[in-house]
Design a protein that fits this description.
Elements (H helix, E strand, L loop, with lengths): L1 H22 L7 H23 L3 H4 L2 H24 L4 H12 L7 H9 L6 H22 L7 H5 L6 H14 L11 H26 L53 H33 L5 H11 L5 H9 L3 H26 L1
């Protein structure tokens, strides 16, 4: 437990340095976007290749992994039902609310937290694959349908995961592992040295970029006009290594108008505002409390305990990925909810991880 606290404190210091660099204007306010792109396109894929190439894949594909996947799917499906059927939000908003309640920051915070708490970044790879290959296409399919997007961009939208460097980092590392390729012996060892060098800078750059992004982030629970600060989160790593920020097709310009009517007639402005605030707190509570609880319940039922149970619980406690804000911005649905959920869960996940580590480590 003391090691975990000390490690998180070190992370906090690095994040604070990033925050101070922006607040003191030592670097431009949008500098986090540059670091995010470096992590997304180079450092994090290199880290995934080197880690997975020598990982014990039987340990990665374990009951603990299955529990983490089951907890995330259960959290998203149950949250969608609550947003849609209890809060009576339109389908597009319910979909964004559900993603905000369960789509975890598997790369930008998941990797460093996995290294710190679990001792192995490889444990996060199956969650990355779940989100990139299953949840993202499924969400886009629903959002395309209910916002009545035209067919011309659908192919580009659904092939987003295939243009993600993180996916190819996982594929390359796993292929090298399964093929018995020793990166140290390939090409005289020079490619391996380059990958190791890039991989070593991934975690500190992620933390610096996170601090920079928080320095310029809008305050949660505000209700800005559409042209206000919400888009400033674009490219920040407050959740998912800036991932789909570069992959989503923006050629169409302004996000499409959500044409679906509310399920039960028009509401007053105050009622809509209260409903949206309820949706935000539902998403934050579901992400930080219910989803880790689901991991405990599913893991215990699967026979896990102690350190085995810690991995899925820590994964479930990770904050909402920024990808959710990107999706909300693209489809013009629940942007404020997505933005605030990213910020609030990023600020609030540390106590949950510390509690899990204290009880299960």
């Amino acid at each position: 437990m003391a090691d975990v606290v000390a490690g998180l404190a070190v992370f906090g210091v690095v994040i604070a340095v990033g925050w101070l660099l922006v607040r003191t204007r030592a670097v431009p306010a949008d500098a986090d976007g540059v670091l995010t792109r470096v992590c997304f396109f180079a450092a994090t894929p290199a880290l995934l290749v080197t880690t997975l190439s020598r990982a014990d894949l039987t340990a990665v594909l374990s009951r603990s992994t299955a529990v983490a996947v089951a907890a995330e799917l259960a959290a998203i499906v149950s949250a969608w039902c609550l947003h849609r059927l209890v809060l009576r939000r339109p389908t597009a908003e319910a979909t964004i609310g559900a993603l905000a309640s369960g789509y975890v920051n598997a790369a930008n915070l998941g990797i460093p937290v996995a290294v710190l708490v679990l001792g192995d970044a490889a444990t996060i790879a199956p969650i990355l694959l779940l989100q990139l290959l299953v949840l993202t296409p499924a969400a886009f399919t629903v959002l395309d349908a209910v916002t009545r997007r035209g067919n011309p961009s659908r192919l580009a939208t659904l092939t987003v995961p295939l243009r993600n460097p993180l996916l190819w980092g996982v594929v390359a590392g796993t292929a090298a592992n399964l093929g018995g390729v020793d990166l140290e012996e390939w090409g005289g060892g020079y490619p391996a040295q380059g990958l190791e060098m890039l991989g070593r800078v991934a975690v500190p750059l992620m933390m610096l970029a996170l601090g920079m992004s928080l320095a310029g982030a809008p305050r949660p629970l505000r209700n800005p006009a559409p042209e206000e600060a919400s888009p400033s989160l674009r490219g920040s790593p407050a959740a998912e290594a800036g991932s789909e920020a570069h992959e989503i097709d923006t050629a169409g310009g302004r996000p499409p108008r959500v044409e679906e009517e509310p399920a039960h007639g028009a509401r007053s402005t105050s009622q809509c505002g209260a409903s949206r605030r309820s949706g935000l707190w539902l998403a934050v509570g579901w992400k930080l409390a219910v989803m880790p609880g689901l991991a405990v319940v599913v893991g215990t039922a699967a026979g896990l305990c102690g350190g085995q149970l810690l991995a899925p619980v820590v994964t479930a406690a990770l904050p909402t990925a920024q990808n959710v804000f990107m999706y909300a911005s693209r489809y013009g649905a629940a942007k404020d909810l997505a933005r605030d959920a990213v910020l609030l869960t990023t600020a609030g996940f540390v106590p949950v991880v510390l509690l899990a580590a204290a009880l299960l480590h």
